Amino acid sequence: MLSVLMLFLIPVGGGIPAGVLLARDKGLIWPVTAGLYLISDIMLALAFEPVLRLLAWVAGKVTFLARLSSRMKAAMARSQEHFGGTGAGPISLVMISFGVDPMTGRASAMAAGHGFLMGWVFAIAGDMLYYAVIAVATLNLNQYIRDPETTMWIVLAAMVIVPMIIRAFRKPQRAQPQPEVR
Predict the structure, then answer these.
(1) What mean pLDDT is predicted for residues 21-48?
(2) How far, in Å, CA of 179 to CA of 91, rounded?
């Protein structure tokens, strides 16, 4: 089980396909495998939160970083519009974590005023959804290919290429003109 957990600790989701296939080969049932992935997310939260807090503290002390922080908050607000409106509610934060990564999801939650626990709940929920999509895709693809290494490389390539294709075909969202108030 430790080897599966170690694969799940690889940043940016690259260890998901390999970890899922290794867990299957070791006879681990899917709830145990998902639990190991959840443990890896909790370990990430415990390691990343102090770094995030330090960055937020430093950003408040350095003028240049404070300006950069306000620009990032504005950019996150624009990104949140793509995931369900203008507010930084739970669904939009979960979708940010699903679409980007849990660290960005947590940073967005922190910028929206959510504390440690709820901020990580939203971030981990989005990452667990991402895990589920990749795990199911990996296991289903491997039924046809029957070569774990080839399956892993195809899934890893798809994890990089599919979002690029979606961005290329997605029409840019334009802000709707607001009616004039008289």
Answers:
(1) 93
(2) 28
* Nearest by Cα to 94 from 58, 57, 120, 70: 120
The closest alpha carbon to 46, from 125, 136, 106, belongs to: 106
Confidence band for 135, pLDDT divided at 50, 70 and 90: very high
The pTM of this model reads 0.76
Neighbouring CB atoms inside 10 A of 7's CB total 21
Structural domain boundaries in the chain: 2-160
Helix (H), strand (E), coil (C) string for the chain: CHHHHHHHCCHHHCHHHHHHHHHHHCCCCHHHHHHHHHHHHHHHHHHHHHHHHHHHHHHHHCHHHHHHHHHHHHHHHHHHHHCCCCCCCHHHHHHHHHHCCHHHHHHHHHHCCCCHHHHHHHHHHHHHHHHHHHHHHHHHHHHHHCCHHHHHHHHHHHHHHHHHHHHHHCCCCCCCCCCCCC
Question: Percentage of the chain with pLDDT > 70?
Answer: 85
